[in-house]
Amino acid sequence: MALSDVKVKAAKVPEDKKQGKLADSGGLYLLIKAFGKYWRLDYRFGDKRKTMALGVHPQVSLKEARDKRESAKKLLEKNIDPSQSKRTDRRKAIMKSNEATFKGVATEWFEIDLEKAEWRIPAEKMKMRMIHIVPLSQQVIDILKELQPCTPPTGTGETHAALGGLSGWIKGWSHLI
């Protein structure tokens, strides 16, 4: 039997259990725990049973959860794993936001002193409005020295374009900073 908003709002964990489930239809169910209610979708892909998180109630309503289920079913019809698709979309969004951040920093070569192995972030860019000095490892120095000749002089506007494609690659090395 399909869920209703009233049943979802009234749902509680059974006293003798740690969690409970309320099934809707088409693999959609509400997982109820002591600290929250979670929308989940069970489906099969490549002869494997999989579960996909669709959101937390009440931020995601019953109607929204059903819409997400239908979107996932459409992907399955096209032989696309909805969990993998969601993960890929999330990664693309993260890469895009990191690209914008990196472009802003990369155009300011004067902030990076390769000889002293430090990155001096101006006070106006910092929350506490104080200069921030970041020590750079030798690996980062080597990478930046390789990149510097590939970029036009600071302030030409072409720096954004030249470094834009490299931002994803640099992101992978960011743990060395």
Short description:
By secondary structure, the chain is an alpha+beta fold. The protein has six helices and seven strands; from the N terminus they run H-E-E-E-E-H-H-E-E-E-H-H-H. The chain has two domains: 5-80, Double Stranded RNA Binding Domain; 92-176, no CATH class.
Architecture overview:
With 177 residues, this protein is of the alpha+beta class. The protein contains 6 helices and 7 strands, in the order αββββααβββααα. A hairpin with a 2-residue loop joins strand 2 (28-33) and strand 3. The longest helix has 25 residues, at 82-106.
- Percent of residues in helices: 40-55%
Protein structure class: alpha+beta
Count the strands? 7
Query: Strand share of the residues?
Result: 15-25%
Q: What is the CA–CA distance across the termini?
A: 55 Å
Unreliable residue runs: 155-169
CA-based shape: elongated
Order of strands across the main sheet: 1-2-3-4
- Radius of gyration, in Å, reads 24 Å
Number of structurally distinct domains: 2
Q: Tell me the major beta sheet.
A: 4 strands, antiparallel
Q: How confident overall, as mean pLDDT?
A: 79
Order of helices and strands: HEEEEHHEEEHHH
Count of separate DSSP helical elements: 6
Set out the fold topology.
Blueprint: H1 5-10, E1 19-23, E2 28-33, E3 36-45, E4 48-57, H2 62-77, H3 82-106, E5 112-113, E6 118-121, E7 132-135, H4 138-147, H5 158-164, H6 167-173
Antiparallel strand pairs: 1-2, 2-3, 3-4, 5-6, 6-7
Helix pairs in contact: 3-5, 3-6
